[in-house]
């Protein structure tokens, strides 16, 4: 029996489009063994995914797979912007390593898994854990991992609606104004400094550095309830942004100020609040 785990993740965090991600303290666990008895799948919600992404990722490592069966247990809501597909791919890559008796190297696995995922931000966070910055370089992807500060917690607002990432990407522009690109670059850089603890984080600074001009305005029409909630949160001074492509929202809450954020959230209708922490553990093999 092989058992692997991988964390959920939140990506973009406002201005860090397609490059910033952070692992969260919920995740999934996969148990697998050779056999053809099928898969038992438990995930939040009424629709269960197939194990296709998991198996494609394992094949990327090991080649042809033997017949496998097992169980997938997940705490990650689907199509919510919390990296459910990235966690499945990360778990599959680790499963492939176990089958191939190959030591997992996060950087190598990211190169194999990114074409399956389509973008590397959530997958890097799922593989490395913590806060990750992914930079395209000649010949592949470079990752700078950071340990997130314990002074900030990620609170996730989860709506009843769901939105596929592919749909959310179709509305993005092919070009952005230079001033908007400069603004996002500066804010993403500052956000890394705040979330890694290099600069002491405050709600005011987190609010300033989570402002985005590149992707959130274009996605707002696809998720009007999310856009309305995001506007109300930010008007109340809460550092909030889309989690990934949405429709969930991530709030960056300074420790000690949780009650203030929860008071604002209570005024919003139809949202579940997940009070999470960062995960410093990436995907790993826990039994083999």
Overall description:
This protein is an alpha+beta fold and 288 residues long. Helices cover 36% and strands 28% of the residues. It has helices spanning 52-62, 84-99, 106-117, 121-128, 165-170, 178-195, 203-209, 216-219, 224-235, 258-266, and strands at residues 2-12, 16-34, 39-42, 68-74, 131-137, 140-146, 152-159, 240-242, 249-254, 271-275, 284-287. The strands form 2 sheets. Strands 1, 2, 3, 4, 5, 6 and 11 form a 7-stranded mixed sheet that branches. Strands 8-9-7-10 form a 4-stranded antiparallel sheet. The radius of gyration is 18 Å and the shape is globular. The mean pLDDT is 94.
Secondary structure elements and pairings:
Blueprint: E1 2-12, E2 16-34, E3 39-42, H1 52-62, E4 68-74, H2 84-99, H3 106-117, H4 121-128, E5 131-137, E6 140-146, E7 152-159, H5 165-170, H6 178-195, H7 203-209, H8 216-219, H9 224-235, E8 240-242, E9 249-254, H10 258-266, E10 271-275, E11 284-287
Parallel strand pairs: 3-4
Antiparallel strand pairs: 1-2, 1-11, 2-4, 2-5, 5-6, 7-9, 7-10, 8-9
């Amino acid at each position: 029996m092989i058992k692997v785990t991988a964390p959920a993740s939140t990506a973009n965090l406002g201005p860090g489009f397609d490059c910033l991600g952070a692992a969260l303290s919920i995740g999934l666990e996969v148990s697998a063994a050779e056999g053809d008895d099928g898969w038992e799948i438990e995930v939040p919600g009424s629709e269960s995914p197939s194990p296709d992404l998991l198996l494609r990722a394992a094949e990327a490592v090991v080649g042809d797979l033997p017949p496998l069966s097992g169980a997938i247990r997940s705490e990650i809501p689907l199509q919510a912007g919390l990296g459910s597909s990235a966690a499945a791919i990360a778990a599959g890559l680790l499963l492939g390593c176990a089958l191939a008796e190959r030591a997992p190297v996060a950087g190598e696995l990211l190169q194999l898994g990114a074409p399956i995922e389509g973008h590397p931000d959530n997958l890097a966070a799922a593989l490395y854990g913590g806060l990750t910055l992914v930079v395209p370089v000649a010949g592949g992807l470079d990752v700078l991992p950071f340990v997130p500060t314990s002074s900030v917690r990620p609170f996730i607002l989860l709506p009843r609606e769901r939105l596929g990432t592919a749909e959310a990407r179709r509305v993005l522009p092919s070009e952005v104004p230079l001033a908007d690109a400069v603004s996002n670059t500066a804010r993403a850089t500052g956000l890394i400094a705040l979330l890694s603890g290099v600069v002491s984080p405050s709600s005011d600074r987190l609010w300033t550095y989570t402002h985005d001009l590149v992707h959130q305005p274009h996605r707002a029409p696809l998720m009007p309830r999310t856009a309305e909630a995001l506007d109300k949160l930010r008007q109340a001074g809460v550092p909030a942004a889309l989690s990934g492509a949405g429709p969930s929202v991530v709030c960056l809450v300074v420790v000690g100020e949780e009650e203030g954020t929860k008071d604002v959230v209570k005024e919003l209708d139809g949202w579940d609040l997940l009070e999470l922490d960062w995960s410093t553990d990436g995907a790993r093999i826990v039994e083999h």
